[in-house]
Write a structure and sequence with these properties.
By secondary structure, the protein is an alpha/beta fold. It is built from eight helices and 13 strands. Helix 2 (102-118) crosses helix 4. The longest helix has 17 residues, at 102-118. Mean pLDDT is 92; it is low at 1-9.
């Protein structure tokens, strides 16, 4: 008499796509990984259940998610997710990478602030010309601006905002914090009109939402004190470019921008040639700090997924 086995048939591994070989080689039990960098599309597109969206999302065929019938989770490698959300099918959970870019973006925010205040772009141009020209040359009554003794207003006091404040420690500044809602030691965004006139430096770290789109408009800028510096490491659409150009061209305000609207900024755009403006090409997250933190997030999320645990940083439930 033939006995039926009481053993449960093995479950087929679940397919995940990751952008790095390192992640693909070390996935938890029960998962099998393909590497998808945004270029060549793996043949397993119909099987993938967990997608780590490559960092260069615009070049990574965002419409592919619609061709993934078994997709359950999409994980970004960016804190902002407004560029991914329109492509996430119904029933798919979207997670962002909160915390991944804190160190890099906070470092750049501080770099932009110090560079703009101390006149580093001017000195760089002088270096190219072999010109030894300190600000006080020939008895001029001007010196470079110090960060010390300034009031710094951080608008968007979340993970990155708090990382910026930690890096401001020791610079002898007063920090004023603003978030969407008030809490202990943090002002509500609705208080911004009364806070702007007090600030010497305004650092924008808000997410891109309908509420924040164009919030730094002519009225916002007019409330900033003469000589104040606007630093934008959020999204370009947060600032009304024409209004900023007008204020900086007049010499009343200064700006240091890692993001712009439009973006990329066309070579003939007047913002490039506006006085008192320092521009970097959206490199806030692009540093050596990125990869080790990205790998850590991917590993942890895949572990949670494999074990049926709650995922971190869910911004859209499936």
């Amino acid at each position: 008499m033939r006995l039926m086995s009481s053993l449960t048939p093995p479950t087929a591994p679940r397919r995940v796509w990751v952008p790095y070989e390192r992640s693909a080689k070390d996935v938890p039990d029960g998962l099998v990984a393909d590497v998808f960098t945004g270029a060549e599309i793996p043949d397993s597109i119909g099987e993938v259940e967990f997608l780590v969206v490559p960092y260069a999302f615009a070049d990574a065929h965002p419409q592919l998610m619609a061709r993934m019938p078994r997709l359950k989770v999409a994980q970004t490698l960016t804190a902002g997710y407004e560029h991914v959300l329109p492509f996430v099918p119904d029933g798919v959970t979207l997670c962002n990478a909160r915390g991944l870019h804190d160190a890099s973006t906070a470092e750049l925010a501080l770099t932009l602030t110090l560079s703009a205040l101390r006149g580093i772009p001017r000195y760089t141009r002088f270096q190219d010309q072999g010109d030894w020209s300190p600000a006080y040359k020939d008895g001029a009554n001007t010196v470079d601006d110090a960060l010390a003794d300034k009031t710094v207003l951080i608008v968007g006091y979340g993970s990155i905002g708090s990382a910026i404040e930690r890096r401001l420690a020791g610079f002898e500044v007063d920090v004023v914090r603003v978030a969407r809602s008030a809490r202990d030691g943090i002002h509500a965004l609705s208080d911004i009109d009364t806070l702007l006139p007090q600030a010497d430096v305004v650092i924008m770290v808000v997410p891109a939402t309908d509420e924040t789109r164009g919030m730094v408009d002519a009225a916002f800028l007019s409330r900033m004190k003469d000589g104040a510096l606007l630093v934008n490491v959020a999204r370009g659409i947060v600032v009304r470019t024409d209004a900023l150009i007008a204020e900086c061209a007049s010499g009343r305000l200064r700006a240091a921008l890692d993001v712009t609207d439009p973006e990329p900024l066309p070579p003939d755009h007047p913002l490039w040639r506006t006085p008192n403006v320092l521009i970097t090409p959206h490199v806030g997250g692009a540093s050596t700090a990125f990869l080790p933190r990205a790998l850590k997030i991917i590993d942890e999320q895949l572990r949670r997924f494999a074990n049926g645990e709650e995922l971190a940083n869910v911004v859209k439930a499936g």
